[in-house]
Structure formats: structure tokens, C-alpha cells
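Intended use. Records like the one below are meant for learning the mapping from a protein sequence to its folded structure. Do not use them to infer anything beyond what is encoded.
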Amino acid sequence: MSPAVRVLLADDHNLVRAGVRRILETQPGFVVVAEVADGEAALTALAAHEADVLVLDLSMPGRDGFEVLRRAREVRPGLRVLVLSMHAGAEYIQRAVREGADGYLLKDSAVQDLVAGIRSVMEGRAFYSPAVQGQLARMARDPRGRGGLESLTEREREVLRRVARGLTTKEIASELAISMRTVDTHRANLMRKLDLKSVALLTQFAIREGLVEPP
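Structure written out for the chain above:
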């Protein structure tokens, strides 16, 4: 049996945290290791608890979610971050993705999509609410910031296409007949070469460069 996914909740609304905890406690394979109400407490809790996924609100007192995004993986390397926000505006989505969010879920779709979102980011796939997908598609058509594709090897492009299609590390390894460790190495090289911090940003880049179709 696979170990339970350890989730840390960071949201300043008690009802939201209670609702998220209730959703996760009804599903097998999840455990909430801590819940906090502000950004400073989130970073402290990440240092104190072994967490796999941080479910993160962007609007919190003190250190906001964006600052937590910037620092979270310094505290807990390998952490996945799923933003849970009421904000569907392009500026929030773009900034969250740029700061390293692995997925972006709107609070009004949390009941339907929270579990799928956590499972997706744990498998190395980006996850977005439908309204967020629309915003990302519009941003991907923006020609600003093009560049970097020429620095990639053909194998890195093959991996990038599959990452952007939402394939897991295991699925990519199977399709390309390479090891999962090699897939992880290629993904790390992609992030380094393109100066992109997350699978979500790699996906946006691949769409913008025409390697895959927008969602």
C-alpha cells in the first residue's frame, strides 16, 4: 500500500480549512499534518512537518501566499504546491505560476477538484480549474517572452511535450523507453535551461512555443 499523501493547509479562513480537511478525510490515502492561518506560520509548519503537498491560499495576513511560494521549496525541497484561491484574474494566476505553483484551483470548484488536483501534482502533472485553463490559454497566445526553445536537445523537447500533455514520470519513461530517473534529470535540465520553476510553467512554455495544443 502506498504511503498517505501528507498535506499542509494554509488559509486564513477557518471555514475553508475545515472544508478542505473534511474533503480529504473522506478520501483514503490523505493525511492533514498541519493547518495554519498565515504565511509565516506556513513556513514554520513546513520546517516542522514532513509534508508532500502544500494547499495554499494567496491572500493571507503577514507573509502572503506569493512569498510563501518563493520560499517554500527552500524549506521543504520536493514539495508540491497547489494554490487554492478565490482569485481567477490573469495577474494572480500568472504570478502564482511564475513563483512555482504546481497547480491552481479556484475555491468554488474545490469540492469537485481538490482530490484530483492533489493527486495530479503529486504525479508531477499540473492541475488547473477550468476557468484557470482558459486564462492560461490566453496568456500562452501572448508572444512576449518567447525564446529558449533552441537551447533544448531533441530528447528534452520530447520530454517537455509529454510533461505538457500531463503524463506522469512513469508514463513518460515508458513511452520513451528510458528510466524514471532519466526523466527526472531531463525535467530538471528543462527547468534550469528555461529558468522555469515548475511543471505549470513548463506547460505554459510548451503551449506558447507550439509544442502542444492549449487546453
